Amino acid sequence: MNYKKLGKILGKIMILEGILMLAPLVVSFIYKESLRHILAFLIPIIAVTAIGFLLQLPKPKRDDLYQKEGFALTAMVWIVMTLFGAIPFVINGDIPNYIDACFEIMSGFTTTGSSVITDLTVVSHSTLFWRSFSHWIGGMGILVFVLIFIPESNDGSSMHLLRAESPGPQVGKLVSKMKVTTRILYLIYLGMTVLEVVILMFDKPIPGYEDDQLFLNLLATFGCAGTGGFGFIPGSMELFHPFSQYVMSIFLILFGCNFSLYYLLLIGKIRDVFRSEEFKSYFLIIGLAVAFVFLGLVGRFEAFPQVYTTEEAFRHSLFQVASLMTTAGYTTTDYHVWPMLSTMALILVMFIGAMAGSTAGGIKVSRIVMALKGAYINVRKLINPRYVPKAKFEGKTLEQNTINDVFAFITLYFFIFLAALFLLSFDPVNGQMVTIVSDAGTYQVEHGFFSNFSAVLTCISNVGPAFEAVGPYSSFAGYSEFSKVILTFTMLLGRLEILPVLILFNKRTWKKI
């Protein structure tokens, strides 16, 4: 294990985190917050920067990284970012419990959006900014950004880091040089972020928040870009005007697309974009999900409290499908009380997620398509042992090794899902009644199996709000510290797609070669 090289890169990450914390520190000055809130960011900035510089001092004997080192480093980086990123919440008192603070910032960096905060109106502007900004940081990936500055090597070290952090079964470079690839990705990411903020500014301010229009639009965009979903005003996106809700729906879907497709658009290969099998499957699933959710709302096959106009039903259907499929988790209404048809459609898209190479979580559309084709091939082989597989994906022959990798990932995904669900069954909160206050009225729900089921689903798929006691108008504050640790770890596994975390905690990883 190349410890000095790992320390050097980890040191760069810590310095970067210190630099990024300057943004909420500036927000704290702008809104004239107390000295305690200023020190909440100033102290961690000094600490992480100093430690980062110390880690730069030892000179490694070799500059290359093996694949296992790249994967282990990726998981280590996200854990370190979380441990230090949680400190401001504890110092300023907005989230005084350190485990709760780690849950919150891990939820931010992994673009999950699940929260332990029960009253957003008493939280400082700097905390609200840091939470939402962490979505934007984690959306494209922390190490992807650092790769811009790390000297490129010929041994594939940079590729190991990109593969470990980027979501999806297959990861590749857009151009021959890795550094250029990461710059292209971040320029597209930044450009789309700026564009959304500009468009949102054309809408009328939210009543009661007229002085904070730019601030709120920035936070909303951070969540859309990173497909996160932290609420920053009561009701999540409920108070935003329909124009902004439609704009966010569109951008959520766009940020759920593979960023490689935007590069193809920029170089004029428009036909290649529309030939993409995953692209077509992604929009087909969105269209079907919106149709089923909309049908459930307007058909009124079951009684539920909300009464929507046809436009409102379509807007809420589009927004919630876009938000939950891209694993953003923003809400415009209390979807927890929707009829079963609409609820089932939302649960299914939470499992599926968006496209590989996007900022979204979930299993990914590409894996779903590959798994279906792999299952078809296996059935055909059982019927006819002489059958020669001819399945293709994105114009390339689907190799058996790729299919096996997809099945292995899905198996691990559901094994971890069930393990976390089992561990949550020990929580004393199970069986307790929780009062929900939403646009559907005031009602009580029991914290039961479905609450835990949806909590684990929303964490491993990096979605945010769930159902029942942890629904869109509730929080995760009721869980014990043990459960919060489990869910925090589940978020990390979901964001890094399992393998980097497993490699980090495998004792063989740390044996001398």
SSE layout and pairing:
Layout (H helix, E strand, L loop, with lengths): L2 H18 L1 H9 L4 H22 L10 H19 L1 H6 L5 H12 L15 H16 L1 H5 L10 H9 L12 H23 L12 H13 L16 H14 L3 H8 L3 H6 L1 H23 L10 H16 L14 H13 L12 H19 L8 E2 L2 E2 L2 H25 L8 E6 L2 E6 L2 H12 L20 H15 L3 H6 L9
Antiparallel strand pairs: 1-2, 3-4
Helix pairs in contact: 1-3, 1-4, 2-3, 2-7, 4-6, 4-9, 6-7, 6-21, 7-11, 10-11, 10-12, 10-13, 11-12, 12-16, 15-16, 15-17, 16-17, 18-19, 19-20, 19-21, 20-21
Please provide a written account of the structure.
This protein is mainly alpha-helical. Among the domains are: 1-165, no CATH class; 375-510, no CATH class. Helices cover 60% and strands 3% of the residues. The protein is built from 22 helices and four strands. The chain has helices at 3-20, 22-30, 35-56, 67-85, 87-92, 98-109, 125-140, 142-146, 157-165, 178-200, 213-225, 242-255, 259-266, 270-275, 277-299, 310-325, 340-352, 365-383, 400-424, 449-460, 481-495, 499-504, and strands at 392-393, 396-397, 433-438, 441-446. The strands form two sheets. The protein has a two-stranded antiparallel ribbon with strand order 1-2. The chain has a two-stranded antiparallel ribbon with strand order 3-4. A hairpin with a 2-residue loop joins strand 3 and strand 4 (441-446). Helix 11 packs parallel to helix 12. The N and C termini lie close together (7 Å).
Q: Could you give a short description of this structure?
A:
With 513 residues, this protein is mostly helical. The chain contains 22 helices and four strands. The strands form two sheets. Strands 1-2 form a two-stranded antiparallel sheet. A two-stranded antiparallel sheet has the order 3-4.
